[in-house]
């Protein structure tokens, strides 16, 4: 009998997801969307799923009721840290949400970018395990997301303080292998006492590497697409050999999207809701409303970019792409950019806006409601990513009937099948301006075939990229390692 069916007896299997991001509490990227959705869908499949994350001074935390479930303290090196565990009172997210607050460490507004970030993450992990120990909590699975919680599998197995957790199974998910949480060995004094013979499990190239430690010590690791798993064997910012050596415990599981949030038929943020049957007309209504606030012409096809201004996302290419498209289309294509990040990229994009490039508008920053509105208004989504472990933007776009134009890497290759291969999107190989603009021209040429374009919109919107399938695959993995 599958372990998930034991819920009908006396036992309910329990998984704790550990992460520093979770939508809608705190979001920087796709990690938050995954952690905010996967547990909800696992709960629907009969597991008791919960998320544990740091406490943030953010609207969600201020606007919802929380109860204190535990208070404790621990030494991080010579510093005594007091911590409080809060639980969201009404489980409004569809799973248990726990926040850990540590005065001076985990009580800030932002998720990243602090000088003592490494010590923050270390304190978070220490507090989680201290809470588990003091309340005798023994989950069936501890699921760790990215390097920020990468020390957990090691500490559960080899720290003297948490020996009662040594046989609890751990799963690690790599959302982005480029970031690894490196820290020097002089920070080892901040760790809980551990079996010193095992120090090599923490080390990679003379540094403490939490991502490497997580992969070495977990019972299974996943990546957020099959394609990205293969790429990590070849290039992983120095860890490619480790990923390859540990491949027998790996599996690629593509992310899903939460249809309770991302569905144009019910999305409350939209000006006009629509389903696959009314895709073109519904999207046009949203585009026309968008044009009343921004510098776009609703009569023109609209290309959008939504994401961080980072070289990883190919955002550094945007200014040259815009100039090339402007020259080729002479104002016959609308372009909208929603993003922020690298100041150098942002300033180059701003120069184009200030120069009055026709039918171009930009929103610097990130606005969740505007992102939904853009997916509902746009005809094409551009993703010139250099690295894209899974990518959620292309999944959102297709659900909203927006044709993705993507660089064929990682999860983009797995999820976007080219029109030339009886698919529904446009893919390109190589990140030169001529190659990218040629791909966009292919998309806009297809747009001119109105009947085919509208049929493709309906086709995309009926694709199943829901979390139901992906959540079931994670539970199957849990069952295997237990």
From TrEMBL:
Residues 14-241 form the Starch synthase catalytic domain. Pfam families: Glyco_transf_5 (PF08323), Glycos_transf_1 (PF00534). Residues 287-459 form the Glycosyl transferase family domain. It comes from the Bacteria. Keywords: Glycogen biosynthesis, Glycosyltransferase, Transferase. It catalyses: [(1->4)-alpha-D-glucosyl](n) + ADP-alpha-D-glucose = [(1->4)-alpha-D-glucosyl](n+1) + ADP + H(+). GO terms for molecular function: alpha-1,4-glucan glucosyltransferase (ADP-glucose donor) activity. ADP-alpha-D-glucose binds at residue 27. Transmembrane segments: none annotated. Pathway: Glycan biosynthesis; glycogen biosynthesis. Its EC number is 2.4.1.21. InterPro entries: Glyco_trans_1, GS/SS, Starch_synth_cat_dom. The keyword Ion transport does not apply. Synthesizes alpha-1,4-glucan chains using ADP-glucose. PANTHER family: ALPHA AMYLASE DOMAIN-CONTAINING PROTEIN (PTHR45825:SF11), GRANULE-BOUND STARCH SYNTHASE 1, CHLOROPLASTIC/AMYLOPLASTIC (PTHR45825). NCBIfam families: glgA. Belongs to the glycosyltransferase 1 family. Bacterial/plant glycogen synthase subfamily. This is Glycogen synthase. It comes from Sphingobacterium zeae.
């Amino acid at each position: 009998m599958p372990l998930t069916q034991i819920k009908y007896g006396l036992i309910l299997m329990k998984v704790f997801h550990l992460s520093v991001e979770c939508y809608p509490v705190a979001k920087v990227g796709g990690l938050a969307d995954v952690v905010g959705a996967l547990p909800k869908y696992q709960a629907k499949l009969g597991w008791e799923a919960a998320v544990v994350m740091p406490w943030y001074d953010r609207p969600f935390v201020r606007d919802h009721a929380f109860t204190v479930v535990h208070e404790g303290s621990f030494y991080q090196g010579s510093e005594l840290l007091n911590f409080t565990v809060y639980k969201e009172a009404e489980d409004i997210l569809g799973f248990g949400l726990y926040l850990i607050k540590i005065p001076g460490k985990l009580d800030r507004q932002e998720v990243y970018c602090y000088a003592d970030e490494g010590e923050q993450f270390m304190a978070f992990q220490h507090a989680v395990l201290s809470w588990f120990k003091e309340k005798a909590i023994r989950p069936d699975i501890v699921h760790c997301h990215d390097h920020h919680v990468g020390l957990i599998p090691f500490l559960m197995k080899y720290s003297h303080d948490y020996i009662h957790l040594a046989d609890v199974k751990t799963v690690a998910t790599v959302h982005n292998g480029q970031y690894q949480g490196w820290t020097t060995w002089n920070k080892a004094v901040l760790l809980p006492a551990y079996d010193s013979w095992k120090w090599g499990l923490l080390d990679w190239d003379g540094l403490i590497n939490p991502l490497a430690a997580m992969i070495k010590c977990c019972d299974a690791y996943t990546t957020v697409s099959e394609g990205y798993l293969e790429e990590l064997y070849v290039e992983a910012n120095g860890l490619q050999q480790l990923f390859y050596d540990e491949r027998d415990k790996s599996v690629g599981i593509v992310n899903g999207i939460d249809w309770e949030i991302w569905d144009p038929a019910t999305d409350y943020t939209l000006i006009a809701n629509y389903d696959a049957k009314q895709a073109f007309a519904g999207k046009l209504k949203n585009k026309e409303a968008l044009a009343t606030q921004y510098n776009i012409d609703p009569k023109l096809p609209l290309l959008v970019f939504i994401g961080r201004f980072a070289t990883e996302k190919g955002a550094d290419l945007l200014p040259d792409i815009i100039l090339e498209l402007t020259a080729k289309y002479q104002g016959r294509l609308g372009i909208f950019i929603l993003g922020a990040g690298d100041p150098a990229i942002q300033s180059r994009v701003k120069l184009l806006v200030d120069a009055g490039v026709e039918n171009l508008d930009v929103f610097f920053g990130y606005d969740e409601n505007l992102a939904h509105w853009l997916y509902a208004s746009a005809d094409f989504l551009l993703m010139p990513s250099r690295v894209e472990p899974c990518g959620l933007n292309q999944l959102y776009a297709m659900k909203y009937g927006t044709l993705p134009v993507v660089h064929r890497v990682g999860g983009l290759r797995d999820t976007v099948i080219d029109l030339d291969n009886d698919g529904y999107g446009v893919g390109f190989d190589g990140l030169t301006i001529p190659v990218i603009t040629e791909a966009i021209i292919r998309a806009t040429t297809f747009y001119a075939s109105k009947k085919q374009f509208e049929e493709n919109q309906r086709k995309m919107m009926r694709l199943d990229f829901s979390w139901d399938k992906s959540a079931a695959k994670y539970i199957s993995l849990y069952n295997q390692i237990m």
